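Technical annex, item 7. During the second reporting period the consortium partners agreed on a shared format for inverse folding records so that results from different sites could be compared directly. Each record opens with the tokenized structure and is followed by the designed sequence. A conforming record, contributed by the partner at site C, is shown below for reference.
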């Protein structure tokens, strides 16, 4: 019986048994292919969420594949919740786009027993007012006010470029407003403002 024993304990027990009854100075190496009592869980926007057996050297991309891959509604972020040695939860954020395009070890993290992977939904922002195509848009990496306005077809002829408002949800349901001078950004006099998930950009009409 090997349940509940470490690899070293199993190795030693097999070595002693073989040396006693069968072989002289046996050399034994135990290789664990998968840990039946150890699991990882994947939830959220995947085709088959659930618990999966933690296999040897299992990484993020492996459990993502076992879960059937991401759904059509999946966003770019995977949040891994892991229990640290002191019992406190630790969270690790993985960029799915980077993981799939580069498959590097920085993003393709080695998983541990008890890890919970949450694949989030697509993130969006909203733009209203004096732009050609107001509406909801997918939040792409590196999105800014200027890029968002371009994505929405640019300003209409009536837009007030100097007083564009960005509304952002704050703590306790409070909404923060930042007024951006897009004309100054276009002229290189101000820095562009990054857009966050669920931000609303409001382009007002000029007062003649």
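Designed sequence (site C submission):
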């Amino acid at each position: 019986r090997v349940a509940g024993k470490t690899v070293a304990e199993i190795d030693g027990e097999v070595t002693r048994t073989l040396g006693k009854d069968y072989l002289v100075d046996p050399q034994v190496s135990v290789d664990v292919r998968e840990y039946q009592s150890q699991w990882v869980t994947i939830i959220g926007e995947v085709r088959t969420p659930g618990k999966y057996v933690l296999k040897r050297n299992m990484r993020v991309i492996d459990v993502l594949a076992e879960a059937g891959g991401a759904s059509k509604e999946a966003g770019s972020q995977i949040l891994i919740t892991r229990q640290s040695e002191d019992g406190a939860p630790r969270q690790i954020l993985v960029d799915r786009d980077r993981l799939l395009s580069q498959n590097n070890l920085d993003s393709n993290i080695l998983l541990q027993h008890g890890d919970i992977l949450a694949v989030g939904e697509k993130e969006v922002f909203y733009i209203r007012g004096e732009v050609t195509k107001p509406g909801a848009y997918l939040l792409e990496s590196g999105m800014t006010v200027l890029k968002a306005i371009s994505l929405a077809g640019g300003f209409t002829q009536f837009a007030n470029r100097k007083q564009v408002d960005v509304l952002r949800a704050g703590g306790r349901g409070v909404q923060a407003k930042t007024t951006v001078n897009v004309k100054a950004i276009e002229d290189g006099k101000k820095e562009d403002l990054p857009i966050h998930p669920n931000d609303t950009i409001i382009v007002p009409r000029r007062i003649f």
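The chain has a mean pLDDT of 86. The radius of gyration is 26 Å. All partners now use this format for quarterly exchanges.
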